[in-house]
Amino acid sequence: MAVTARTAAAAHPSGPQVADTIRAAITGGDFAPHQRLVEAELSERFGASRASVRNALAQLATEGLVERIQNRGARVRAVSLDEAVEITEVRMALEGLCAAKAAEHVTEDDRAALLDLGARMKAAVASGDVLGYSDLNRRLHGRVLEMSGQQTARAVLERLHGQNVRRQFRLAMQPGRPQTSLPQHLAVIDAVCAGDPPAAEAAMRAHLRSVIEALPALENPH
Fold first, then answer.
1. pTM higher than 0.85, yes or no?
2. I need a surface site. Which of 25, 97, 122, 179 has the fewest CB within 10 A?
């Protein structure tokens, strides 16, 4: 009987694994804001036990991705414009810090990787490859965070990214946005590669300030 129980447990993903899967589905756009998250449906979809799904939803609620409605279960939490601005303001402070740290720690390998990303971003904008540019944008920010060595900031930023990723993607798809953000990203790359922490922080903050200024247009496209 004990062997059977262990076998059954091994057949289902654990709570943390289920949380990772649902988190990826939310941030990837598979679930829309305010969409109900029904335990039975999620259990069947992801091959997980109801208990694992319940624990996963509780974890995602603490991360701000899911909200629980009394007597109605859970749903994907929608982020308001005001909250999106606040999140980006926090990003501005933390990613500015990380850009400065990255400039302090930059190596020749880092410089080569950043310059390659910059060249590929320019090529993507020139060819109109908006999706490719969006992916390179994400990779550039991730590389700067990795270079910074600031683990606490990275942990906070990962949680905030999950809450705001849908808006960030919509912003990246806005006509003309890549042409606006490209020189900002190149300024970050240049300052980090030059080993200039104040300039790197200023460039990252200027870029994210531009993001804040652009966010209202997502709410009122016309």
1. no
2. 179
